[in-house]
């Protein structure tokens, strides 16, 4: 079906209010595309309207994030944000010395790392790491089998020690354990698994302390190692970045999923009920993926959520993180293909396959600056099996841009929400001096447009003066070293 006259839906959106303003701001080329393609225009215009995140929306999101943080700190279950206590009260200082290990169990692989720390002068003397993929059958097996496999991998890695790595005589090797599944942390070195996620269906772990599970497996395997810190990946990132820079106060992961943590004052956490930390500070893991207040959502988001394994949950994550951006774009393209023959009259079975279009694809399409958008054309052909003319490619580019722009801007608003909450509690601590937000994750690292939209939103919200003090910077693979540093900070041996 293709339409020649301007459909009423388009007429009603074009000349009014904000959409009129934003239309006048568009380049001539874009206007030309739009008028050639009136049949897709209603879908695109509705999408852009529903996903728009102008300054007032960003402000609302930042305010709501700050308010939800407070509610979650007041009482467990008080908000969408769980505001989980990390029990990390002491951040790395740079004085840490000795040999420490990190284990990162977060997806289909586990990574092991050893690091020789040399104190303030020498810092990181040497590091080595290894990555082991987890056999599929262990992801559906018993808890003992999985942890035995990990423990024996650790043992093999430890045996290869030598060169610059030295363990003082009589000491057990200490591990910082990064475990990126939902855990109810009970101390710095214990936490109960709430449930497995991300495709793991291991029996017998839920409800148990994952540190005991690993320590017991290491005993069974005769591995001379023990866990001295259990850390969330955001917390590891914060610790790793803080080691190099005392101004780091917040860490954000934008990868498959998303999360953020920050340094909080103990007296701002009512639900701690008087428990003290010697430093007066502790890291709080916000679990901000569950945020949902006032987000600009489209029908495509609602359908994707309804079809997901966790409907109604993780709405912020579903709007801003890498697992979902490509899928939202795919859903829009399906509707454009079905209602307006975006790719001609042929439909493609591939295009109807959920999650076939990944965020790396939409990032690659957005980076195509060639005149004929050849890369867009070949990705559409290779990945979703459709042919496209230049006009269709331009529309696809716009859809990618709309979804990435919303994601980046909302992520930026979330960051400002955290900064704003901290600033409200003690004036000047954040905005009055240099403050660093450490970023990690494949989405942030590999999607330059997204990164720019995030920074734009932060600048718009803070204004040019304040935003000079806020440094948002990539901290690559900081979480592994961060976990090893937290093992050092929480070592049972004295330094
Ligand atoms: P995880 O979050 O699973 O620990 P990463 O931090 O490595 O892993 O992030 C991986 C995610 O990053 C992928 O799921 C994908 O969504 C996103 N990503 C990877 N490469 C790119 C890319 N080139 N452009 C945009 N997003 C990417
Ligand atoms: Mg990760």
Automatic annotation (TrEMBL):
Tell me which residues make up the Hexokinase N-terminal domain.
47-243
SUPFAM superfamilies cross-referenced by the UniProt entry:
Actin-like ATPase domain
Which domain of life does the protein's organism represent? Eukaryota
The record's listing under InterPro entries reads:
ATPase_NBD (IPR043129), Hexokinase (IPR001312), Hexokinase_BS (IPR019807), Hexokinase_C (IPR022673), Hexokinase_N (IPR022672)
- CDD domains in alphabetical order: ASKHA_NBD_HK_plant
Residue ranges of domain Hexokinase C-terminal in the record: 250-488
UniProt-listed Enzyme Commission number(s): 2.7.1.-
Task: Give me any GO biological process, just one.
Answer: glycolytic process
Taken from the UniProt entry, a GO cellular component term is: mitochondrion
User: Cross-referenced Pfam families, in alphabetical order?
Assistant: Hexokinase_1, Hexokinase_2
Which Gene Ontology MF annotations are present?
ATP binding; D-glucose binding; fructokinase activity; glucokinase activity
Keyword entries, A-Z: ATP-binding, Glycolysis, Kinase, Nucleotide-binding, Transferase
List the residue ranges of the region (Disordered): 1-26
Q: In which pathway does it act?
A: Carbohydrate metabolism; hexose metabolism; Carbohydrate degradation; glycolysis; D-glyceraldehyde 3-phosphate and glycerone phosphate from D-glucose: step 1/4
The entry's family comment says:
Belongs to the hexokinase family.
Sorted alphabetically, which PANTHER family does this protein's record hold?
Answer: HEXOKINASE, HEXOKINASE-LIKE 1 PROTEIN-RELATED
This protein's name: Phosphotransferase
Q: Which organism is this protein's natural source?
A: Heracleum sosnowskyi
């Amino acid at each position: 079906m293709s339409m020649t006259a301007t459909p009423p839906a388009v007429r009603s959106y074009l000349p009014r209010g904000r959409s009129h303003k934003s239309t006048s701001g568009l380049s001539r080329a874009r206007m030309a595309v739009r008028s050639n393609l009136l049949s897709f225009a209603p879908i695109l215009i509705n999408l852009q309207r529903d996903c728009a995140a102008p300054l007032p929306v960003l402000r609302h999101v930042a305010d709501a994030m700050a308010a939800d943080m407070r509610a979650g700190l007041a009482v467990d279950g008080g908000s969408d944000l769980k505001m989980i206590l990390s029990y990390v009260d002491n951040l790395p200082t740079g004085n840490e010395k000795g040999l420490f290990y990190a284990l990162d169990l977060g997806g289909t692989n586990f990574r092991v790392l050893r690091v020789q720390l040399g104190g303030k002068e020498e810092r990181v003397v040497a590091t080595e790491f290894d990555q082991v993929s987890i056999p599929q059958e262990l992801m559906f097996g018993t808890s003992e089998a999985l942890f035995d496999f990990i423990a024996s991998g650790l043992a093999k890695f430890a045996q290869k020690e030598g060169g610059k790595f030295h363990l003082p005589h009589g000491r057990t090797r200490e591990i910082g354990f990064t475990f990126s599944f939902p855990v109810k942390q009970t101390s710095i070195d214990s936490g109960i698994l709430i449930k497995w996620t991300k495709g793991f269906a291991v029996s017998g772990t839920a409800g148990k302390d994952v540190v005991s599970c690993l320590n017991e497996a290491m005993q069974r395997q005769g591995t001379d190692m023990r866990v001295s810190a259990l850390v969330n990946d955001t917390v590891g990132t914060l610790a790793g970045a803080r080691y190099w820079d005392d101004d780091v106060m917040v860490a954000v992961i934008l990868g498959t999923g998303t999360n953020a943590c920050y340094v909080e004052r103990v007296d701002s956490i009512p639900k701690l009920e008087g428990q003290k930390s010697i430093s007066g500070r502790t890291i709080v893991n916000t679990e901000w993926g569950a945020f949902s207040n006032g987000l600009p959502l489209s029908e495509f988001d609602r359908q994707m959520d309804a079809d997901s394994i966790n409907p109604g949950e993780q709405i912020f994550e579903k709007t801003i993180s890498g697992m979902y951006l490509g899928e939202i774009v795919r859903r829009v393209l399906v509707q454009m293909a079905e209602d307006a023959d975006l790719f001609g009259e042929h439909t493609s079975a591939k295009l109807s396959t959920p999650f076939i279009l990944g965020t790396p694809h939409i990032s690659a399409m957005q980076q195509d600056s060639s005149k004929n958008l050849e890369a867009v054309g070949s990705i559409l052909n290779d990945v979703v099996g459709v042919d496209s003319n230049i006009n269709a490619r331009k529309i696809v580019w716009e859809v990618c841009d709309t979804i990435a722009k919303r994601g980046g801007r909302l992520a930026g608003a979330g960051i400002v929400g955290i900064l704003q909450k901290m600033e409200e509690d003690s004036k000047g601590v954040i905005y009055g001096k240099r403050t660093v937000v450490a970023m990690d994750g494949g989405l942030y690292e590999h999607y330059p447009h997204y990164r720019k939209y995030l920074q734009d939103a932060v600048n718009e919200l803070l204004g040019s003066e304040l935003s000079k003090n806020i440094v948002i910077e990539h901290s690559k693979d900081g979480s592994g070293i961060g976990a090893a540093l937290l093992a050092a900070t929480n070592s049972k041996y004295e330094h």
